[in-house]
Design a protein that fits this description.
The chain is built from twelve helices and eight strands. By secondary structure, the chain is an alpha/beta fold.
């Protein structure tokens, strides 16, 4: 059994559960008939684990899947079994953050709202190291500088992968540009890097200026993922000081996406945003 949630496994679980419910059988009854543990059934439906193909086909027989349902279920099992998301240092990452990283690896589009610091995908190594050092004061087991840098590079490589580079659209509060992290030199290099990245064809940066006012339902940071499969719902990741949380409820995610879109539509254009970044860069250089 391959343990560890991925989009493919959760998609398979969402497909299988209604069939099991329709059958009227409880997980412990299915486990007895399929000669497996009831945890295997629970983990299959939650997307936390993928049973062997032999075990899975037995479960399908027990719950009375139709021929068409069986064909589709086996297609979804193959997709889940071949999930391409590979994360460096996965064992060193918190479980919730590791799930976020798995979703990010499988996504084709990422939208962010960042109100305090630069989005991780656009951070320089020195800026990220300073953020990591600050995190040590509020976490019990923070990653080392070397691990944090390697993890950041692994994430950012998604923007330049040969097969379907990730499309990134970041909304960044103007306060992020004005918050000098790591000193003027580190901050100037970070702003220069932001301007360079904003010129990449798959990256869009918009600055939300001080004059914008309140954000309505959002206080950020928020990340919204879109996935390649037709009909596969988007997910959102909400980040807190003490960790983060992935949302998959379609109503919750669509609500966040709608607010994000409203902010993006009202914010300065990417070209205007580059002028705001350049002005902030000039101010840092003058320090």
């Amino acid at each position: 059994m391959v343990v560890g949630t991925t989009r493919g496994k959760r998609r398979l679980g969402r497909f299988v559960k209604p069939i099991r419910v329709r059958s009227g059988r409880k997980p412990d009854e299915i486990a007895a008939l399929a000669v497996c543990s009831k945890q295997t059934v629970y983990r299959l439906e939650s997307g936390d684990a993928l049973p062997s193909l032999h075990r899975f086909t037995t479960v399908l027989e027990v719950i009375g899947a139709t021929d068409e349902e069986r064909r589709r279920a086996l297609q979804l099992w193959e997709i889940a079994d071949s999930d391409p998301a590979i994360i460096a240092h996965a064992g060193d990452l918190p479980v919730r953050y590791r799930r976020f990283r798995m979703d990010e690896c499988e996504a084709v589009r990422e939208r962010t709202l960042d109100t305090v610091i630069m989005p991780g995908m656009l951070q320089t190594a020195d800026y990220a190291a300073e953020i990591n050092r600050a995190a040590r004061t509020r976490t019990n087991r923070p990653p080392s500088d070397a691990l944090a840098a390697a993890e950041r590079r692994d994430r950012q490589s998604l923007l330049f992968r040969a097969n379907r580079p990730l499309v990134l659209h970041s909304l960044i509060d103007e306060g992020v540009l004005r918050r000098v992290i790591g000193g003027p030199d580190v901050m100037a290099a970070q702003l220069e890097h932001l301007l360079v990245m904003a010129d990449e064809p798959n990256i869009t940066v918009q600055i939300v200026p001080f004059t914008f006012g309140a954000y309505g339902a959002m206080s950020g940071p928020v990340t919204i993922f879109t996935f390649p499969e037709d009909g596969d719902p988007e997910s959102a990741y909400l980040e807190y000081v003490s960790g983060g949380e992935t949302l998959e409820d379609e109503a919750d995610v669509s609500g966040l996406a709608a607010v994000w879109q409203e902010i993006s539509a009202a914010a300065p254009s990417p070209a205007e945003s580059q002028l705001i970044i350049s002005f902030a860069l000039d101010s840092v250089r003058e320090r």
